[in-house]
């Protein structure tokens, strides 16, 4: 393995040496620097990626080494350093004795020490690290897990056998570079937390075949086999919470917004069955409503009702009256700062 690292880590270390000014004006590496590179490469033991919140994931050495020669091209030294808030990943190359080699990776820049590189190559390098990380997240072994349905506040502990069963399905997933449209979780908002021994991998089930895994500031997406969703619904059926006044809204087949006093608000009608994106946006609207605070005492509402949301449920409708920071459902008043604006932003984003 050390021989492979010696052969394939040269492009990355060449970039590192260029960043630290270890080349002559013609761009040809100096001979003593070549010796230094050989020593550093020979000491590398493994590669890993660190998230912005401290989660470390080892990279698949075979994939890493095969793809590495194509990286590190089209880079230009930049006077503008990579800002801390723009860092997405930290690539760590561990060495046997000396301190690790560390590259901080952003979408538009790579930082090594006090030098920054930008250009077409950095964006390609970011996408490469992102994809390697996404695939590496599913390579761990699991000890146990927890399955939850957030919308109905139910959960189920998974012993090792059941956790491994779900994990094996997840490991066959296809990694997706991105989603064409933003996808919110469908009701009942299933999540799976897997204990890997060294950390927790949290999987959000967005649709019956799409899941996501957060990693620091990044979110990775995967297309899964439908057996994952069928297994989850078998183990934790989405039973309704009978006392929840918002529960019926999740069964709506269409949603409509009608302006009342503010005529600048567009009339919007959306069929839940048009796509999982439409359905999930309506479910996200309901989650926003659920986060409102029930006012136990009589609340004086503003005179101007902004608009109404009508949820079509079977042959009937449930209407929510929207004010700036309040709304009314079934005669009950709820407070939620800026709720009318948040709902409109969700539905307007889909129309654009």
What are its keywords?
Dna Ligase, domain 1, single chain, 3 domains, 7-stranded antiparallel beta sheet, about 350 residues, alpha+beta
Task: Describe this entry's structure for a reader.
The chain has helices at residues 2-8, 10-19, 31-43, 61-67, 120-136, 160-170, 226-235, 276-290, 339-351; strands at residues 44-50, 56-58, 76-78, 87-95, 101-106, 109-112, 115-118, 144-149, 154-158, 174-176, 190-195, 200-207, 210-215, 218-223, 254-259, 268-271, 293-294, 307-313, 316-322, 326-329, 332-335. The radius of gyration is 26 Å and the shape is globular. It has three domains: 2-136, Dna Ligase, domain 1 (2-Layer Sandwich), CATH 3.30.1490; 144-235, Uncharacterised protein PF16224, DUF4883 (Dna Ligase, domain 1); 247-351, Dna Ligase, domain 1, CATH 3.30.1490. The chain has 352 residues and is an alpha+beta fold. α2 (10-19) packs across α3 (31-43). Residues 1-11 and 14-38 have low confidence and may be disordered. The strands form three sheets. Strands 2-1-4-5-6-7-3 form a seven-stranded antiparallel beta sheet. A seven-stranded antiparallel beta sheet has the order 9-8-11-12-13-14-10. A seven-stranded antiparallel beta sheet has the order 16-15-18-19-20-21-17, covered by helices on one side. β6 and β7 form a beta hairpin. 31% of the residues are buried.
Summarize this, please?
The chain has 352 residues and is an alpha+beta fold.
Low-confidence stretches: 1-11, 14-38
The total of helices stands at 9
Distance between the termini: 51 Å
Strand portion: 25-35%
Shape: globular
Helix percentage range: 25-40%
Tally of strands? 21
Q: Write the element-wise H/E pattern from the N-terminal end onward.
A: HHHEEHEEEEEHEEHEEEEEHEEHEEEEEH
In this structure, how is the largest beta sheet organized?
Answer: 7 strands, antiparallel
> So what's the CATH class of the largest domain?
Alpha Beta
- The class by helix and strand makeup works out as alpha+beta
Radius of gyration: 26 Å
What does the average pLDDT come to?
Answer: 84
Which architecture of the largest domain would the CATH scheme give at its second level?
A: 2-Layer Sandwich
């Amino acid at each position: 393995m050390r021989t492979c690292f010696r052969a394939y880590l040269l492009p990355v270390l060449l970039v590192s040496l260029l960043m630290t000014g270890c080349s002559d004006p013609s761009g040809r590496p100096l001979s003593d620097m070549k010796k230094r590179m050989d020593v550093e490469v020979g000491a590398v033991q493994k590669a890993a990626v660190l998230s912005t919140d401290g989660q470390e994931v080892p990279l698949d050495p075979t994939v890493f080494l095969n793809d590495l020669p194509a990286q590190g091209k089209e880079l230009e030294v930049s006077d503008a350093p990579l800002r801390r808030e723009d860092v997405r990943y930290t690539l760590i190359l561990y060495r046997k004795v000396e301190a690790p080699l560390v590259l901080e990776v952003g979408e538009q820049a790579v930082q090594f020490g006090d030098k920054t590189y930008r250009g077409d190559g950095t964006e390609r390098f970011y996408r490469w690290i992102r994809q390697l990380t996404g695939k590496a997240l599913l390579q761990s072994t699991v000890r146990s897990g927890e399955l939850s349905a957030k919308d109905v506040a139910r959960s189920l502990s998974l012993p090792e056998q059941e956790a491994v069963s779900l994990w094996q399905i997840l490991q066959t997933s296809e990694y997706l570079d991105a989603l064409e449209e933003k996808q919110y979780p469908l009701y009942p908002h299933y999540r799976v937390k897997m204990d890997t021994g060294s950390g927790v991998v949290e999987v959000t089930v967005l649709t019956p075949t799409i899941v996501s895994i957060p990693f620091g500031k990044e979110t990775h997406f995967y297309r899964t086999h439908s057996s994952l969703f069928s297994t989850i619904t078998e183990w934790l059926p989405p039973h309704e919470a009978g006392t929840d006044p918002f529960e019926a809204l999740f069964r709506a087949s269409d949603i409509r917004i009608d302006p009342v006093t503010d005529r600048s608000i567009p009339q919007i009608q959306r069929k839940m069955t048009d796509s999982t994106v439409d359905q999930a946006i309506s479910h996200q609207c309901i989650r926003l409503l659920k986060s409102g605070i029930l006012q136990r005492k009589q609340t004086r509402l503003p005179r101007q009702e902004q608009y109404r949301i009508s949820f079509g449920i079977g042959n009937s409708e449930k209407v929510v009256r929207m004010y700036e920071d309040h709304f009314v459902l079934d005669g009950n008043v709820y407070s939620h700062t800026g709720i009318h604006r948040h709902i409109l932003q969700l539905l307007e984003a889909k129309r654009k």
